[in-house]
Amino acid sequence: MAALLDANQRLNLTRVTEPEAVARDHLLDSLAALPLLDRCSPGDVVDLGSGGGVPAIPLALVRRELRWTLVESVGKKAAELRGFVTALGLGNVTVATGRAEELGRDPVHRERYTVATARACAALPVLAEYALPLLKQGGVLLAWKGPLAADDPEVLAGTAAIRLLGGDRPRIEPAGVPALGGHRFVIVRKRRATPSRFPRRPGEPARRPLA
Fold it and tell me: Is 80 exceeded by the pLDDT of residue 211?
């Protein structure tokens, strides 16, 4: 967290800077996903929109046996992430500078990962198009969300998009930590190969969400 707050003086990585709030809203919020992550039996994990390295860096510190790829489209932020990785000695982490839509069409990354993580990245219909092309069949998208319910418009729209992309109906689970309030996790398992036309070109998923 010290590295994050130091970098935050140069780049806008987080609005949360008070120590107790940083511990709760960044560290605790990241690590609350550990039971769900472990249940996925992951090997290769891709984190989308990594920004300041949350949740991926805290999770990579405590799950060093996993291989993490952090995806960040802004070059300066990606450079800071590489600095974090070097300073913390995280040999299990690499940083990819680029957009998820580009990686999703790259044979090196397409349908490679067991788990995709995303926190404060995009609405569910958009996030599904970013993440599912990167996941193997049987892989899982694990998304950090606020107080969503199954009948929330975002979930209904996301369900329609996920179906097109080869995923199961999303499951919603509470964070299970009272200090995090109504935070939820959305879990999506990929059952079928994603059609080759997805993801669409960069920017298109956000401009014209599938649902």
Answer: no
